[in-house]
Design brief:
alpha+beta; Ubiquitin-like (UB roll); Fumarate Reductase Iron-sulfur Protein, Chain B, domain 2; 2 domains; five-stranded mixed β-sheet; two-stranded antiparallel sheet; about 30% helix; elongated
Length: about 240
């Protein structure tokens, strides 16, 4: 089948305005969007810029908007779109660096702000920090995130307020504070008790729809809210 790839093009260094550029594409074999992009770059336009790495839906590098949907280019088959016209755009909510490449720094900063790692109690264990399967099951879903930033790009709150931490940062925070091995004090993670943190989410579930790994970040935010309220009440009762 013959396709037309309509690709967003913009180089802020030399272009006054962004535009779309069309490329014909034809293949007798099944191809992913990423494979088609690589062929277009190699055979038609070497200036075309896009991110990719593992090509197996593990690294999350190739997130983009494909025919209006946030997807990973490496796992989206060209023939699955059901249209001869393929429109590719960069992820929203982030500054465009060139063509389909966006600046992920705000996404990484938000993630770093919640300290997304286990905080120990300073006492080294005799063997290892073990955990029961039933405890792991409570938050295992949030370990499947591949940091593709699709949820961040889909979030309407990020669109109107760049200070918002975003879906996966808060869901990742829940993953760690729910872990019985995490020893961070309540005061440390209670810093997200703000309009640009825990209470900023509009719960419209756009992040859940966009996630290619079914992590469901909005559910993690809701769970984090419940945990915060419970811990806050416990603290208030202890002070009485």
């Amino acid at each position: 089948m013959k396709y037309t790839f309509k690709i967003f093009r913009y180089d802020p260094v030399k272009d006054g305005q962004p535009c779309f550029q069309e490329y014909p594409y034809e293949s007798r074999e099944k191809r992913t969007i990423l494979e088609a992009l690589m062929e277009i770059r190699n055979e038609q336009d070497a200036t075309l810029s896009f991110r990719y790495s593992c090509r197996e839906a593990v690294c999350g590098s190739c997130g983009m908007v494909i025919n209006g949907r946030l997807e990973l280019a490496c796992r989206t088959m060209v023939d699955s779109l059901g249209s001869p016209l393929v429109i590719l755009e960069p992820l929203p909510n982030m500054e465009i660096q060139k063509d389909l490449v966006v600046d992920l720094e705000p996404f990484w900063k938000a993630l770093g702000d919640v300290h997304p790692y286990l905080v120990g109690d300073g006492k080294p264990p005799e063997k290892e920090h073990g955990i029961e399967d039933k405890e792991m099951a409570k938050f295992e879903r949030y370990t499947n995130c591949i940091l593709c930033a699709c949820c961040y790009a889909a979030c309407p709150v990020v669109t109107r307020d760049a200070r918002y931490l975003g879906p996966i940062a808060l869901a990742k925070l829940y993953r760690f504070v729910q872990d019985p091995r995490d020893a961070r004090p309540f005061a440390d993670w209670a810093r997200v008790n703000t309009d640009t943190g825990l209470w900023g989410c509009d719960t419209v579930f756009k992040c859940n729809e966009a996630c290619p790994k079914d992590v469901q970040p909005a559910h993690g935010i809701e769970a984090l809210r419940r945990k915060f309220v419970i811990e806050r009440l416990k603290k208030m009762l202890r002070l009485r």
